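ESCALATION

Customer reports they have been waiting on this structure for their group meeting. Please prioritize. Original submission:
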Amino acid sequence: MNKVIIAIDGQASTGKSTQAKKIAVNLDFDYRDSGAYYRAITYYLLNNNINYDLIVSQEIFDQINIEQTYNEGFFRIYLNDIDITDRIRGHRVSLNVSNYAKKPEIRKFVYDQLRKSAELNSLVVDGRDIGTVVFPNANFKFFLIAEPRIRAERRHKQINDKSVNVDVIEKEIKLRDKIDSTREIAPLRKADDAYKIDVSNLTIEEVYKKMLKKVKSD
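Update from on-call: job pushed to the front of the queue and completed.
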């Protein structure tokens, strides 16, 4: 059987990872969260005082080993054998990840990780440029969007920090949208052959059924 790749792109906090995991489990495919790679790298660089305006050398990348697992409903990401799953979702990483993610050397590092994964098994990957750059020939492509306020409320629940205001998160999400969609390298955009879904007023299950129906009907 030929390996199948399903690319799920879209704006921040539209539930890409949630949907990708559900579909991967249903089809018994491997799952990769591309955003988690960028967050893990951002976490490492911030903790080592490497600012985003500096070039990240190969010597630094050689010190970074990232592994992802998804078993029995639990996603974990390891940085140099240390579980940092919860740490990469913190406010500090969320605020800085777009600045690091637009660097070409970091993007190449992540692309290499994802393409190596695809050599082994069928894969479901979520991100922002999976269907346009990483896997332009993916078998199925989806693009998720939602209103900024709704995404901010979802992110607020996710980080579970009452000291962070929803209005602030909404402003940051709008800024991140702008950065992601206007960066020179691999900007956030819908692939011409991607199936777009506005998830603003849909439940997780409703979005899941739409996507699974599309995959299984083709």
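Sent to customer with the following note: The radius of gyration is 17 Å.
Escalation resolved.
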